[in-house]
Design brief:
mainly alpha; 1 helix; 0% strand; UPF0478
Length: 131
């Protein structure tokens, strides 16, 4: 064997050792990629039912929002009717009720003033009451 053949054998051995050392990380990387692929596949399989349920929930929420919109419109109509009714009541009965209240207040004040006047006359000294 010549020196060139021995150098070629040493270079071949070093190359085999290098390939073996690089093969171990490549095998580990392959397993990691397989695990990642499996995880993605599992997540994808679990996402479909989740998205279907989310879609059903959104549909249900939209239905409820439409109902709430109808209820809000009805409540607005009722408040408008109540406002109109109170306006009609005020216009129809408000004026006479205010006048009646003012009349009763005035009559009450007049009766109280008359009573005080009679009591003051009766309480004056030097005057006698007729019996």
């Amino acid at each position: 064997m010549s020196a060139v053949e021995i150098a070629a054998l040493i270079a071949a051995g070093a190359f085999v050792l290098l390939v073996l050392l690089l093969a171990i990380p490549l095998l580990k990387l392959g397993r990691t990629l397989d695990a990642a692929t499996e995880a993605i596949k599992t997540a994808n399989d679990g996402t479909d039912p989740l998205l279907v349920n989310a879609n059903q929930t959104i549909t249900h929420v939209n239905t409820q929002l439409e109902r709430v919109d109808g209820i809000t419109a009805n409540a607005q109509a009722v408040s408008g009717n109540v406002s109109a009714l109170s306006s009609v009541f005020t216009a129809t009965l408000g004026g006479p009720l205010v006048k009646t209240a003012a009349l009763s207040y005035g009559v009450s004040k007049a009766i109280k003033a008359r009573r005080k006047k009679k009591e003051a006359k009766a309480a004056r000294p030097g005057r006698r009451r007729k019996q």
